[in-house]
Structure to design on (207 residues):
């Protein structure tokens, strides 16, 4: 089984996949591509220092638009889709990927052209419908600080056109703790993410 992982940041969720699925002796699947839209993403380093080494690719939106003046965001999404398709993945995992894909990307992951469909799943640090979009962790902490919520969570969901609204595949609740600092809370939440990204990937691939 072939997995493509898209990252934008530290890649700690990618690392969880590398450690649990990609690295021998347990290698029920392999990560065949790590693509980032940020050159400085530490996830790229994690891929190139993995063993076996994982091919990496980089394409950022602004430089792409700048060097292709008549191009649009859709063209960028289509180009990323082609780069991913070239790796011939059975599954595409968005792990800390901070770019909202339009329909063009999803269409190209689904379209036939004799190539297999690749489901796309995304990790999101909130419960379904709770804090869609960016800064979910900060918004949850805010509402906890205002006494509006007592729990949040993380989920992995199928990617569809509506941001963070696809069918949840794995959902895990995380209770806030009185007196806990934001940093301690975030550490606990990220730990849950590392578990569910692996669980969801195994589930989808039937590993
Ligand atoms: C994670 O909370 C992820 O859900 C969010 O970005 C954070 C960083 O993830 N989208 P990673 O360390 O880059 O995997």
């Amino acid at each position: 089984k072939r997995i493509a992982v898209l990252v934008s940041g530290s890649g700690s969720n990618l690392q969880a996949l590398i450690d649990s699925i990609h690295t021998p002796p347990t290698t029920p699947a392999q990560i065949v591509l790590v693509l980032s839209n940020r050159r400085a993403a530490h996830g790229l380093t994690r891929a190139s220092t993995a063993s076996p080494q994982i091919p990496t690719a980089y394409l950022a939106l602004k430089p792409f638009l700048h060097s292709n003046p008549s191009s649009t965001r859709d063209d960028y999404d289509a180009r990323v889709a082609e780069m991913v398709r070239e790796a011939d993945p059975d599954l595409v995992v968005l792990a800390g990927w901070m770019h909202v894909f339009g329909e063009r990307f999803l269409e190209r992951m689904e379209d036939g052209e004799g190539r297999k469909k690749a489901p796309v799943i995304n990790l999101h640090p909130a419960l379904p419908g709770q804090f869609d979009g960016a800064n979910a962790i900060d918004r949850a902490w805010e509402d906890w600080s205002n006494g509006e919520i007592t729990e949040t969570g993380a989920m992995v969901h199928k990617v569809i056109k509506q941001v963070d609204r696809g069918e949840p595949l794995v959902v895990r609740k995380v209770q806030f703790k009185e007196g806990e600092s934001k940093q301690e809370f975030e550490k606990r939440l990220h730990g849950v993410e590392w578990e569910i990204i692996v669980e969801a990937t195994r589930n989808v691939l039937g590993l």
